[in-house]
Amino acid sequence: MQVSKIHKFLALDFFKKVLVFVVFLGLNFGLNAQNAYHVRTVVIDAGHGGKDPGAIGRFSEEKNITLAIALKVGYYIKRCCPDVKVIYTRTKDVFVPLYKRAEIANKAKADLFISIHVNSAKNHRVHGASTYVMGLHKDKDNLRVAMLENRSILYEKDYKKHYQNFDINSPEAYIIFSLYQNAYLNLSLQFAQLVQDQFRTRAKRHDLGVHQAGFVVLWRTTMPSVLIEVGYISNPAEERFLNSKYGQDIIASAIYRAFKQYKFKFDK
Asked: CATH number of the domain at 37-267, please?
């Protein structure tokens, strides 16, 4: 075996051991944390904003749809769960760096972080809603979604300094990057599944399931966190739905109902 191949083999073996160790720690931490876990503060993040439009449809931009839905979700929670403090990463059309969004949640000692986004695809027939948590992507489509959303860091000055030289275009970089958040993976997955259940039953949306991938906005949050793709702006019918008052109301209501179920579970 050549020396270079030996080095690669040893590096891979070491990486596997680190991965198993991190996952083991995460599972144990998550189980212990659940015993004293309550939801008293939630941070709602409207994806993109300002100079970062996000995905662009035929007549609308992602940043405006996410803000409208985020504000509605916060309104429902405030109205029906008065014991919960709601914090927004933005309440108007401004640019907020991804690392700042995590800082807002961490400084508030939030119990849950919800980032709202809109998806896009070259195939305009693709439609439906999905929810992501931080983790290892299992297929190319999950990686594609993460790469698309992570392009927001290119709008930031000196972004490499804030993200430890993370290369958003390198599939290999996402493997190490995705090991973060393992301590909260179990709780994040629980909330993500509740969101998808509500999308399917309450909002009557095409359920694209719960997935894992490496999202910069979830990287440094120190609490259960999810990124919700509420639909495809690239699909003409879905773009109209996402921009309608009814569409935004029913999607926000579904996310709120999932939040209420999740909160009730731990408040018991």
From this structure: 3.40.630.40
